Structures are given as structure tokens and as C-alpha cells.
Amino acid sequence: MNLLEKYIPDFSGHIEGIYYDLAVESVEIVFYDEPEEFNPKVKLVFSGVCEYQEAEIKEIEEDCVELVIGLDEVAGGYCLHTNSREINFKAKSVLSISVST
User: Fold this and answer.
1) Higher pLDDT, 11 or 85
2) SS3 state of residue 43
3) Ranges of each domain in the chain
4) 8-state DSSP, 63
């Protein structure tokens, strides 16, 4: 099941960044509102993260904005696909937060 429609239905898949913090076992993904505006609007926070694995598909170009292609529930965890990498991890919970700019 692709979770993008559930968590960010009104925004593009363009992201400001993906932040993994091993110390607090969290992954945060900050999404922009629209590719023309680039205002951070939604943050997904995954808590209780374990088994984090990241594979780079291609190097992110300096002037390009990373684009999330899919966020799926897979085998009791999550698989995040972007135009440049694939990230697999397990998490206990996920929260969607509006970001003020």
C-alpha cells in the first residue's frame, strides 16, 4: 500500500530532506507544498525506528530537489523510494505534522 496518498494527499512528493537520528530512533521526512513554491509544509515522523538500511541509487545533483516516488508498507516495515535512493526500516509509529513557514 502506497502511503503517500494517506499522509501527503495535497502536496507534491518533493522533499526538503530525510533525517535519520539513530540516538532517538526516528526518521523525519519534510515535504514541500508545491514544486514551484518550495515551502516546507508537512513532516512525517517515524518513531521507534530500527533495522534502518539505505541504498543510494544515484548521486543527488546539487541543484535538484529530491522526489519521493513511493512510501510503502512492506513486511512489517516501510520502504521509501526516492529518485536517488531506497530506504528500508521498521518503526513503531508514524505521525504527520503540519509545518509552519
Assistant:
1) 85
2) strand
3) 4-98
4) T
